[in-house]
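Structure ticket #2291
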Amino acid sequence: MAERDPEAVRQFVERFASALTEAGFQRMHARVFAVMHGTDSGRLTAAEIAERLQISPAAVSGAVRYLTRFNLIRREREPGSRRDHFVVENDSWYEAIVNRDEVLLRWQNSAREGIEVLGADTPAGRRMADSLAFFEFITEELNELVAKWQKVKNERQAAKD
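Resolution: structure written out below.
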């Protein structure tokens, strides 16, 4: 395996984090997620993250809490160790999208409640009905995209084997 230029890796991490921030991630969450992606093992301790990003342990703690909540990374502890390792999987984006389904279902239920409470024939009720239709559409499309991705992923894996 070729040696990497540490400065080029650091710059990549910051550029990737900036792209994520522009898409709506909070800056620290984006930096931690990006540095995780920039490791071959996909596995770092909080101390390693703090050192690589030159940030405080508290900043790491908040970021990994957020990222684990949305299944972008996961926490592991090796038997006999008191140190947590944070792991980013190759399919972290897939997991995040699949878990968004739960959020979309909650939004759909809230929209249904809103239609009932606000009245289906009122401007606010119609706006909620439009929101519900959109959430249902997105859910259906995401399910189809996930199925397509599984097929593509399987084909890519078969080509590697």
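Closing remark: The beta strands are 43-45, 74-77, 84-87.
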